[in-house]
Every structure is written in structure tokens, then in C-alpha cells.
Amino acid sequence: MMKQILFAGVIGLFLTLIGTPLLIKLLARKGYGQYIRDDGPREHASKRGTPTMGGIAFILATIAAYFLSKVITSWTTDKAATPTFSGVLVLGLMAGMGLVGFLDDYIKIVKRRSLGLRAKAKMAGQLIVGIAFAVLALQFADARGNTPASTKLSFVQDFGWTIGPVLFVIWALFMILAMSNGVNLTDGLDGLATGASVLVFGAYTFIGVWQFQESCANAATLTNPAACYEVRDPLDLAVVSSALMGACLGFLWWNTSPAKIFMGDTGSLALGGALAGLAICSRTELLLALLGGLFVLITMSVVIQVGSFRLTGRRVFRMAPLQHHFELKGWSEVLVVVRFWIIQGICVIVGLGIFYAGWAAEK
């Protein structure tokens, strides 16, 4: 199984490195270019017309990398490497949210309608995908009775009382919508959301491997059985995370400043869905707020800006989301992106430290 993680990451990287420029040519030939807000930083005017909907590249690459890693592993080890329900559900959530984003991008760009999907239609699409994921995630119990998701809240592991299936679906929807919108708001500068996502997917690759090594299924051989993890398919979640990390890293080659392509809502909604799905299935729901701290910070900047303007008529930031505030203060785009990547890196380090501390505290 460990080989699958390596294969998935390498294949995802390779596919987006060679596939993204082909997508750029296709989108440019059809004239599917990005609209730029007139009230944004002046430097962004030069980006008008840059091909968008680039999320197609890493969505397809991730799915292909996941399944190809299974095939290659089966060939090289003579052992069947079959997909798991947890892995397929996270991929399905990513693809479903990506489809909603694609429809939004398509209407916005191809149909020349600036708002894309109507708000109600977009929300309905996200709700359908999210509810389907949440309901299915409570099915498919394994031999130990573990389903891909749990009806308990989780931080580094499940804790507290069971909230029941109805509240779980509502909670899962909140996570999916919050992370999707968080990545969408972060996707305002070249490479910012892509690079930040690479870091979080790297963290979830580590978490999946660690949970597999310390699984309660192997409690008899563990040195610290009291701290074992009841997660249905931890190693396969690591394979999904690795595929996403590699695919995003290859896409970043073309998405970094000056970007040759943007991910669009197609990519940002897909990445947000994938992050929420990984957190839910790995029983690290609340930890995601730390691991994806940059997305939370940028989302909160919008909430604060809107709330302040409605209550007092004054704006806290020169422009929201937060990255544009610093641009208007005179920071270059590359400076903002690199410093925000550093912030995201710190969030990942702190999150992983807390994850390990939660395991060590049970000794």
C-alpha cells in the first residue's frame, strides 16, 4: 500500500505537468478567458483573458492517478489493490463540487453572463453533492463496524457524544460549504490557493500514513494501543491526498506568477470539497480549521469586512479578501503569495504538532 502513495503523487504530478499546457491551448483557442473586477488592484488588469477552468486538469489528474496507482501496484506486487469506499467518496465529493464550479464557470465565460450560475442554483448543486456524500459516508461499514464517516465530532480523533445522522449531515454540509468558499476566496492571486492546498494535502498524506500505522485494527502489535485510531481506510485516504498533492503541484508550475491558467470555481470548489472530505473521513474535522488556517483567515476577513460595513458603514480593510488589502497597501503580488504560503506552512506545522500531541498524550 505504501507504494500506492508514491505512485499516486508522481502520476498526479506528471499528468498535470504535461496535461495543463494542453488544456491552456484548448481553452485559449475557444476564448475561455477570465473576467477581472474593475474595482480590484490595477495590476490585475493584465490578467484579463487568461484561460480559466484549469481545475479540470488536476481533478482529472487526481482521479487518474488514484486508479492508476491501484493498477500499477497490483502489477508490481501481485496483490489486488482495490479502491476503498472512503477514497472513492472523497474523490466523488471533489468531482461533484468541481462539476458545480464548472457549470458556474461555463455560464460565466461561455454564455457571457457575469454572475455565472444563479445563487440558488449554485447552492442547490452544492447541497445535492454534499448531502449525497454525507449520507453515503455513513454507510459501508467494515468488519470492525467503521463507516467512512462518524456521527461523532472529531479533532485529532472522535470525541464527545454521537450527534446522530441528521445533525451529522448538517455538520458535513457546513464543512463542505465553508472550505469550498474558503478556497474560492483565497483563489485571487497567482498560485496562492494552489500552493496552500499542496501544503494541506501533504499534511493529510502524513496523517493517513500515521493513522494506518497506529490503527486499532493492529492494536495487538502496537506499543501504545490506547491511542489507536478507528478510521476505516486511513492509508487509502493518504493515497487520495498524495494524488491531490502531486496534481496540484504540477498545476502550480503553470498557475504560479505570471499565471498561464486559473483554476476557476471548477478548481476551488473541488479542492474545498476534497479538504472537507478528507477531514471528515480521517476523523480530524475540527483540526482542519488549523491545517487550513489560511483559508479560514481569508474567509474571516470577508466576514469582518461585510459585517463592519453593514453595522457601521466603515470598512476594516482596503479591500476583501485579505490578500487584496495588502496589494492595495503596496505589496507586490509575489510578496503577498509567498508570505501567505509561509503563514499556511506555519498552520500546517502547528496542526500536525497538535495531531501528534494528541496521540502522545494518550501514552
From TrEMBL:
It catalyses: UDP-N-acetyl-alpha-D-muramoyl-L-alanyl-gamma-D-glutamyl-meso-2,6-diaminopimeloyl-D-alanyl-D-alanine + di-trans,octa-cis-undecaprenyl phosphate = di-trans,octa-cis-undecaprenyl diphospho-N-acetyl-alpha-D-muramoyl-L-alanyl-D-glutamyl-meso-2,6-diaminopimeloyl-D-alanyl-D-alanine + UMP. Its cofactor is Mg(2+). Its main location: membrane. Its EC number is 2.7.8.13. Keywords: Cell cycle, Cell division, Cell membrane, Cell shape, Cell wall biogenesis/degradation, Magnesium, Membrane, Metal-binding, Peptidoglycan synthesis, Transferase, Transmembrane, Transmembrane helix. It is an enzyme of class 2 (transferase). It is a multi-pass membrane protein. HAMAP family: MraY. PANTHER family: PHOSPHO-N-ACETYLMURAMOYL-PENTAPEPTIDE-TRANSFERASE, PHOSPHO-N-ACETYLMURAMOYL-PENTAPEPTIDE-TRANSFERASE HOMOLOG. NCBIfam families: mraY. This is Phospho-N-acetylmuramoyl-pentapeptide-transferase. It comes from Streptomyces lannensis. The lineage of its organism: Bacteria, Bacillati, Actinomycetota, Actinomycetes, Kitasatosporales. The gene is mraY.
